[in-house]
Specification:
Blueprint lengths: L2 E6 L3 H14 L3 E6 L2 H7 L6 E4 L7 H11 L5 E5 L16 E5 L4 H13 L12
Parallel strand pairs: 1-2, 1-3, 3-4, 4-5
Length: 131
């Protein structure tokens, strides 16, 4: 059975290229792509993982991750940021089930992070915690 993940990035070219790469390199994943964080948040009811860019117009990736965590407390989240974890604020820092990848993200790193978060016994407690 395919794992379903949400991928959110307001940069259409990045969204398209990364979801195409994921489809080619990780065919076991079903990726729902959103260019608007609010739309993703509305649809986020039964997904095991959220991938988002930190810097987006309107709702930031951090705000999206926090709002999603209000709905699903143990939702694993991958945040992509130009300067890696340095940009992540205190609200996400130190939480389990959160990984941060530097942009531009290498598809192999993204697939590895997705795999770690989806295969951990409790939905991601083995994930890298930002500190």
């Amino acid at each position: 059975m395919a794992d379903h993940i949400f991928y959110v990035d307001d940069r259409e070219e990045s969204l398209s290229s990364k979801t195409d790469l994921l489809a080619r390199e990780a065919p076991h994943l079903t990726v729902r792509a959103f260019s608007e964080a609010a739309l993703a948040l509305e649809a986020l009811t039964r997904t095991p993982l959220l991938v988002t860019s930190l810097r987006m117009e309107g709702m930031s990736g951090q705000a999206l991750a926090l709002a999603a965590r209000e709905l699903i407390s143990n939702l694993p989240v991958i945040v992509m940021a130009v300067h890696g974890g340095v940009e992540i604020g205190g609200a996400l820092r130190g939480r389990s089930l959160v990984e941060c990848l530097g942009e531009p993200v290498q598809i192999e790193s993204l697939i590895a992070s997705i795999g770690r978060l989806l295969t951990s016994d409790d939905g991601g407690s083995g994930a890298t915690s930002l500190s």
